[in-house]
Backbone:
């Protein structure tokens, strides 16, 4: 009997060790993060190979064609749809781009309200990437802003107004805590407010247009708004100091397109691409330096103690890549004459600012996960040691258990990495008729020949997401 | 689980509105006028949902119901593309009585049925709730008098 018990005890030891080593191997081998699954799309976009980018986007979504949406959206499909929406916008397939934006918008809204206890436990032990994706505030605002472009290009004011309203619902929610809300979104609402104002201006609603333009003027001066604001203020009693200041520089009443017979052309150029999030490992000491202020009381000492014992050495976390390139400003000509453009949004700066605000907290969360794993590992070690009656085996088991959990810790590299780095515009009045537009951006020339009827408006879009 | 409006939601709200119309005073007025011509204008979308095609279907449904139970002749905008385009364009900024009078005369109708869907949005950290309203109105083309008005609510939420 004694011999049988001894054999059984040794079998349990070997079995436990095999399981732990196996878990470590599986964790070590399966360490791809979200950004790895989208590298093909972004590599193709780097060189403006749009068909390849679309093909890669479809593959990431698990579909064959751009008109397909996965039957049941899985965890990261909303983000993948945003990526494909931008590729489609670059391909000038505005209808399909709108569809992808709208499906993603709904999915992100539902994800915002979805968190289960299981997700929370997994996030606490393993990684933020386990839980549903919570879009960042600037991503939510830019989603509706960029979709407004899709509708305006198609001259669909009804659709653009719906996106403007959706933008407003989100903006109002994010700014509900005035001080913190504005700090959180920075200037991410500027393009949406500008485009919403433009939409309602063209729809013949001066009050709404002025309200939105006033919002846009909270972020920047926008010289291109001076004349429209002046015209709209003649038709509406809505006034603010910002609107008055904007219109001040315009001397004399300017006739509306209806009065003059001119047409209005707005050229929106989205170029470059924001950096992606990548997985990074830093020594525990560096992680503590950055995140100490965000850690709960006692956590920093606990982490330093574990580091001193050699039980933990590295922390995995997501980091924002450096900005890929400097972007030469576009050169936009209409009928051979260069038109000055206006920067509506430096999205690179918006993304960087948002990351700088959250980096400490993200690393602190990684440190807390590390401490939780150490506690789990210690528990495994104690249990194994008791079962085997060999403390050395317990220590080995603790290290292997922790190692497996570290290996399975996939930093959350999810982000909307196909956002354009810059959004700029030219807004100009022209005589009605045919016009030639040339946009030179990112080393490429885009030519569009347009014909605009008297008193009509037109929006052109060029989206170039390359970084070379 | 969604805050979107679908066709079923709109049809349910329309059912409420049309039931109210059926029992309103305007029915008696129409009955006394020997089948006056009535036109139905596109329903305006003032919500944060893309429901354009559902609203087009609603317009057709209103016409069908009027044909089936109201003592009127329904004049459809279907064959008048240019007028339909103009109305849709003007609707974007709301429209006033002068326009309704002009369109009514162009269509050859005495009464216009108009409407809109609008919403009130509320969002917190844990939920989003949208209260939609389907608003239907009957207007005299000649006088601009509002003869009937009804608002049917639809509540949607994600909690």
Residues:
């Amino acid at each position: 009997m004694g011999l049988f018990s001894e054999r059984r005890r040794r079998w349990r030891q070997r079995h436990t060790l095999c399981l732990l080593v196996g878990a470590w191997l599986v964790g070590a081998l399966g360490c791809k993060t979200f950004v790895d699954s989208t590298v093909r799309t972004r590599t193709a976009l780097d060189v403006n190979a749009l068909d390849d980018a679309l093909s890669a986007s479809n593959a990431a979504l698990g579909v064959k064609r751009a008109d397909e949406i996965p039957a049941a959206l899985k965890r990261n499909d909303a983000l993948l749809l945003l990526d494909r929406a931008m590729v489609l916008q670059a391909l000038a397939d505005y209808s399909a781009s709108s569809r992808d934006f709208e499906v993603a918008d709904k999915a992100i809204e539902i994800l915002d309200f979805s968190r289960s206890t299981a997700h929370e436990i997994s996030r606490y032990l393993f990684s933020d990437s386990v839980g549903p994706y919570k879009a960042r505030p600037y991503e939510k605002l830019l989603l509706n802003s960029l979709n407004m472009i899709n509708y305006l290009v198609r001259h669909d004011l009804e659709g653009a107004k719906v996106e403007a309203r959706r933008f407003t619902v989100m903006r109002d929610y994010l700014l509900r805590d005035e001080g913190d809300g504005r700090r959180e979104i920075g200037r991410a609402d500027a393009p949406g407010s500008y485009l919403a104002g433009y939409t309602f201006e063209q729809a013949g609603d001066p009050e709404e247009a002025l309200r939105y333009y006033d919002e846009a003027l909270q972020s920047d001066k926008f010289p291109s708004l001076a004349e429209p604001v002046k015209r709209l203020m003649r038709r509406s009693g809505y006034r603010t100091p910002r609107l008055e200041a904007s219109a001040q520089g315009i001397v004399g009443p300017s006739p509306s397109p209806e009065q003059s017979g001119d047409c209005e052309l707005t050229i929106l150029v989205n170029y470059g691409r924001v950096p992606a999030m990548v997985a990074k490992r830093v020594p525990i000491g560096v992680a503590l330096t950055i995140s100490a202020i965000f850690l709960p009381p006692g956590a920093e000492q606990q982490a330093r103690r574990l580091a001193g014992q050699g039980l933990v050495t590295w922390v995995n976390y997501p980091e924002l890549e450096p900005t890929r390139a400097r972007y030469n400003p576009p050169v936009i000509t209409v009928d051979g004459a260069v038109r000055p453009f206006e920067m509506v949004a430096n999205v690179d700066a918006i993304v960087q600012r948002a990351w700088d605000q959250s980096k400490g907290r993200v690393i602190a969360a990684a440190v807390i996960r590390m401490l939780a794993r150490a506690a789990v590992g210690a528990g495994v070690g104690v249990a194994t040691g008791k079962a085997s009656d060999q403390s050395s085996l317990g220590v080995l088991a603790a290290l292997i258990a922790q190692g497996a959990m570290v290996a399975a810790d996939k930093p959350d590299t999810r982000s909307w990495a196909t956002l354009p780095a810059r959004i700029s515009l030219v807004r100009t009045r022209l005589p009605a008729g045919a016009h030639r537009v040339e946009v030179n951006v990112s080393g490429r020339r885009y030519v569009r020949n347009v014909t605009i009827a008297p008193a009509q408006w037109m929006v052109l879009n060029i989206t170039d997401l390359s970084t070379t | 689980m969604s805050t979107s409006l679908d066709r079923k939601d709109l049809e349910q709200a329309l059912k409420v509105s049309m039931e109210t119309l059926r029992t309103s005073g305007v029915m008696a007025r129409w009955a006394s006028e020997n089948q006056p011509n009535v036109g139905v204008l596109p329903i305006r979308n003032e919500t944060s949902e893309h429901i354009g095609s559902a609203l087009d279907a609603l317009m057709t449904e209103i016409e069908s119901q009027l044909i089936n139970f109201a003592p009127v002749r329904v004049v459809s905008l279907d064959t008048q593309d240019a007028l339909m385009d103009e109305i849709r364009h003007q609707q974007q900024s709301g429209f006033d009585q002068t326009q309704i009078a002009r369109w009514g005369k162009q269509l050859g109708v005495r009464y216009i049925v108009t409407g809109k869907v609008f919403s009130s949005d509320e969002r917190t950290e844990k939920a989003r709730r949208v209260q939609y309203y389907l608003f239907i109105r009957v207007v005299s083309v000649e006088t601009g008098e509002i003869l009937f008005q009804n608002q049917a609510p639809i509540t949607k939420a994600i909690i």
Remarks:
- Residues 1-24+260-468 of chain A form one domain.
- Residues 347-388 of chain A form the longest helix (42 residues).
- The longest strand of chain A covers residues 263-271.
